[in-house]
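Quick note —
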Amino acid sequence: EAILFFDEFDTLGKLRDYSQDHAEMKRVVNTFLQLFDYLPDHVVLIAATNHDHIIDQALLRRFDYKLKLNLPDKQQIKDLVYKIKEFGAFKFEKGMNLDKVADQAEGLSYFSIQKTLVQTLKKSLFDIQSNTTHLSPAINTKLWLKLIELEKQQQEEQRV
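Predicted structure written out below.
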């Protein structure tokens, strides 16, 4: 038995009529179509993408199940932050408004939210004065909101 996992499947399975693509990628998609038809029953094929709208429909039809994972809502974002905080040696800065952060982070994936939080914590560690004895950084809300905004901008640029 085997499990094949293709992450970012859209890079391999783009629409064959996609105008910005080269003939080589069209051959790749055609090859995938042929190979998928001959996969043995004991092989499980899993593909992940954030851009299913650009995957060739003939490829999509070859998957028995399609599972859509939604982006986290505001409460799920707050739950994620609390879970991360639970395992870390950091605290919220005084007066932090997690609702505001959750509002700003809405539309990002769990990974992107966690990434911006980790970046904030790293930068906060560097900001701790060398003569300070406590190494428990506070989450800098302004910095975190700025990093969330940058993450959203980067994702928007990638979509274009």
